[in-house]
Amino acid sequence: MIGIVFDMDGVIFDTERIWRDAFIKYNKKYNIFLSEEYRKSICGKAEVLIRKELRDMNLNIDIDNYREDIRGYVNSEIEKGNYNIKDGFLDLIHYLKDKNYKIALATSSNRKRTNMLFKNKNLDINMFDYALCGDEVINGKPNPEIFIKACNHLGVDKKECYVIEDSINGIMASIDGGLIPIMVIDMIEPNDYVINNCKYIFDNLDDIKSIL
User: Fold this and answer.
1) So where are the chain's domains?
2) So what's the pLDDT on residue 189?
3) Would you list the DSSP string of 33-71?
4) Which of 58, 80, 115, 174 is deepest in the core (most CB within 10 A)?
5) Are 83 and 117 in contact (CB under 8 A)?
6) Is it the case that residue 1 has pLDDT exceeding 90?
7) Are 19 and 45 in contact (CB under 8 A)?
8) Can you give the C-alpha Rg of the chain in angstroms?
């Protein structure tokens, strides 16, 4: 039995651009200078790890307030519905269901935000056989816990389970967990690690059908 595990931000919804806009907005507000390359490096990473990393950088700002401002902006944009479903997602889901693949969602976003994203676009999160959120695991990405738990819940061998991701941290987690990584490029280009270690790299979700 083959399993497919989806990341959410940047894979199902085009929300990574909202995170980018929030990053730019609040870097200006807090008068800090963090690069776009740095922002990309923390995409998909567990919130607790992001805050620890920022504290270690000694930025002389209140890290919790900074991150809550960013998260508040993102949540506000989501509440307004200012995002879209990624091209090819619904077609891919229908294809997988027709082929009787087991499918799961494994996102670093918390359950509240995840439910809101699906509800606002009139999507039923129960389209997945299982859904697991970042606030429901102990160790977030790049730790593979969330993917391994999703795989186990689906009842599939991790060597027969694909992970669809757009972030470097997500790809690292899937590789470290022993699953089959697929990177679908959104706003982050594959680096040398991804190029050398990722099983498949695609420009869009439609291309995934070619390997299943």
Assistant:
1) 3-14+84-211, 16-79
2) 94
3) ---HHHHHHHTT--HHHHHHHHHHTT-SS-HHHHHHHHH
4) 174
5) yes
6) no
7) no
8) 17
Query: Rounded mean pLDDT of the chain?
Result: 96
Instruction: Report DSSP letters for 20-32, one per residue.
Output: HHHHHHHHHHTT-
Separation CA 186–CA 170 (nearest Å): 13
Place of tokens 């504290």: 55
pLDDT digits 0-9 by tens, 174-203: 999 999 999 999 999 999 999 999 999 999
CATH class name, domain 3-14+84-211? alpha beta
pLDDT over threshold 90, residue 147: yes
- Supply φ then ψ for residue 174, to 5 degrees: -70, -40
Q: How far apart are CA 96 and CA 201, in angstroms?
A: 19
Beta-carbon contacts of 159 under 8 Å, excluding residues fewer than 6 positions away, are: 178, 179, 180
Residues in CB range of 27: below 8 A, 6 or more apart = 33, 34
Residue 131: what are its φ and ψ, rounded to 5°?
-135, 130
